[in-house]
Amino acid sequence: LVYFSSKARHSLGSRIRYFIGGMGLCSITLFAFYVSTVYNKAIATSNTAIIANSVIVLFIMEIDEYIFSAVDAINEKWTKHAADTKLSDMEKEIARQRAQIES
Q1: 10 in the Ramachandran plot: left (φ > 0), alpha (ψ -120 to 50) or beta?
Q2: Which residues, at least 6 apart from 57, have a Cβ–Cβ distance to it below 8 Å?
Q3: pLDDT digits (tens, 9 = 90+) for 23-75
Q4: Residue 84 has pLDDT above 80, yes or no
Q5: How far apart are CA 48 and CA 63, in angstroms?
Q6: SS3 string of the chain?
């Protein structure tokens, strides 16, 4: 999302939303990494405990996917644009690579 905030083809409002959303996602990811590291260091007493704690943290982080699915079910427009943008970018990249192979 931070990458999309630098594209001039988007309106200023979209660019601001992309930047704030991207920074929010990066912050949450870094915070989750920090918390899981500190948690494992403080709680774990053996290798087995570290693995068990890591699995628990990964399970909790999986909740993000469920939240995205819920938001998608509530209002498809919120998530459709992000999915369409990724798909169209992939299609353009595939067409470019095919053109390079054929020439």
Answers
A1: beta
A2: 32, 36, 39, 40
A3: 888 898 899 888 878 877 888 788 888 888 888 878 887 887 788 788 778 87
A4: no
A5: 24
A6: CCCHHHCCCCCHHHHHHHHHHHHHHHHHHHHHHHHHHHHHHHHCCCHHHHHHHHHHHHHHHCHHHHHHHHHHHHCHHHHHHHHHHHHHHHHHHHHHHHHHHHC
